[in-house]
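Forwarding the complex inputs:
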Amino acid sequence: MRMQEILILKIVVRFVIPFIQVYGFYVITAGHLSPGGGFAGGTIVAASMVLYALTFDASQGLEKLSHERASLFESLGAIWYVALGFLGILVGGNFLTNGQIGIPLGTPGYLISGGLIPLLSFGIGIKVAVTVVSLYYSLVEED
Amino acid sequence: MAEALAALGQNYFFYYALILFMVGFYTTLSHSNILKKIIGINIMETSIFLFFVALGYVEGGQAPIMGRGAEGGPYMNPLPSALILTGIVVSVSITAFALALMVKLYHFYGTLDADEIVMLRGERQ
Amino acid sequence: MIYQLPVLIVVQLLLGSFLMPIVGRIRNQLIPHISLFLMGLANVFSIILLFRVVREGNIHYHLGNWAPPWGIEIVADLLGAYMAVIITGISFLVLVFAWRDIQREINYALRGWFYTLVLLISGAMVGMVLTNDLFNLYVMVEIVSLCGPALVAIRNNRLAVEAGFKYLVMIALGSGPILFGIALIYMITGHLNMTFAGQEVLNVIHEYPRVALLAQAFFIVGFGVKAALFPLHVWLPDAYTSAPSPSSALLAGLAAKVYIVGLTRVLFNLYGIDVLATTPLFTILKVMAVAGIIMGSIMALNQKDIKRLVAYSSVAQIGYIFLGLSLATGFSVTGAILHILNHALIKSMMFLCCGVIIYQKKTSNVDELGGVGKEFPITMICFGIGAFAMVGIPMLNGFISKWYISLGALEYGGLAGLMYLLVIIISSLLNGLYYLPVLIKAFLGGDSQKETVFDKAPITLILPIVILAAGIIILGLLPFVPLQIAADAAQHLLGQ
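Prediction (whole assembly, three chains):
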């Protein structure tokens, strides 16, 4: 029996994917508080999308995230990181300066803390998620 | 002798990592199947990750979390883990790139055997 | 502002490479313009940086204001700034050349990615020569390593993909040992900053002599594979032959050199010359370098493919650089550092010449190239200048660096020194032996059977070659500025 025809799998996957994605975003946003961060969380988000493509069809998954859009998001994630790094130079510090650039540092241990770091891991998370998914698609494609 | 054995027992993960490293290296060089070569590279890199992360282990140490939820006491060294995360990214990129090239190679030559590919390449040149 | 330059050069190149896919979505034709602009800007910045470093000394840049040993430190010293100028300059000329050339060599869909890769690899190369942090070095090494096979396989035919895969496997085998070496150094010193780790190595070397030696061995194997040190060079001929010509010029002219600089930095900064002299490292390197010099030239002798011939001669020239470094005298290290510049100029120019010939004749077989010298005098004269510089004819830049390496061999002294001198002389003769037939056939041979594609090569193909050839002659006549920089950098490395 082909994977695509299993009804139970489809329904369960539909139900599970949002939870995986929420967990992935949790790992990304809590990267400065606990083990995890952009790369780990991004991979989890990507896993949810790969799961979608596995149970349904790669072409259906590709409709949601085409190659052009994927490369756009990859670039934007990296540019976001570099742009945040340049903020440090703008205020007269060094590249990637944290603290002096006006983003509140907050109390250590709470969600809003760490200044630049959550924003950086957000960019990394997007880039990693999109990259891993598009890697999967490019390998799966038959041409 | 006893000293050497004690040192061996204390640092057993060094030897384990070295053995794993050699297994990976040997697999990559000796197998002609391209997929096995890629697996060999992965084994080799995993051994280094094992070694590096093991360096940061502190007997009875806590996870190094500051501020709220901190447990105090001796902490693990977080630096090796953070570095190895980067190492894993590199390893994933190498693997993905190698797999993509492998798909291309199969498309061009119709085989995954490195020796056969070299022969085919020589014929058509 | 000048203080920010070391990081600005790296970041703007990396940023440019990420921008290219977006630019490609908006307007595909803009990609070459923007990447040329960014590379030119990077070149100007590197020249300013070099001036500043020569005048006022090193720039120590702490990323995110975290002071070492905790933060990542970027140090623009003489060697780094000098390499940055070479990298950005030659990448710029290669990009000019690629403007027309890649239209024939690369599929339409992949052209934008070529520019992405070139910007990425040159940014990473600059980062690699400027960084003072071991792990940062590893990351940059990996970026360069991954871009290399991509630049080869981008041609997307059966030969290029196979060569790219072989290159990738070899280079992945090289990155494992480098990371292992870094782990060992971190284990015994607890530092990743090279300056601090170097001070600590001196303290602990008596406690852990074998670990330090093992790390050294790992570094040599890892960087040796990537730089194509002789017995580890097997990926090189295929990769350089099947890559598009601009990629070959970049990889042969720059990427291989950058790994040598990385190895030099790691070894000399971590261990220092005194410790290195007590280990068998230099002996091993010398043996490998001499074997590379001789074998590379011998293997180049019976090559029919012009690009393969030039590629094999790279193996020999990399042997020269390693020989100069491993003799470890003031003159020889100066010669080696100078040879990095000279060989980068010569080799990228020769690959670009091959590119023009292949562009026009659609063949790379030496036998079919009879009489090309009459058809394309400028290209072939430049090729001849490169060949003579490689042989080491006085008035050309190759002579100066070979002269200094030979002086280093004499300074090394004894019978061994004379033997190294003999090796250099023999290899120069061999260089002549395999380059002269090509030139004789090109200028004196009968007319080629192959039809010419264009009457005149486009100016963007000729201009970079002419500039590089002019550089070879100018540096051959007036080598004072780079020579002074190389001598100072060598003194710094040797800690005198």
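The CA atoms of residues 75 and 127 of chain A lie 8 Å apart.
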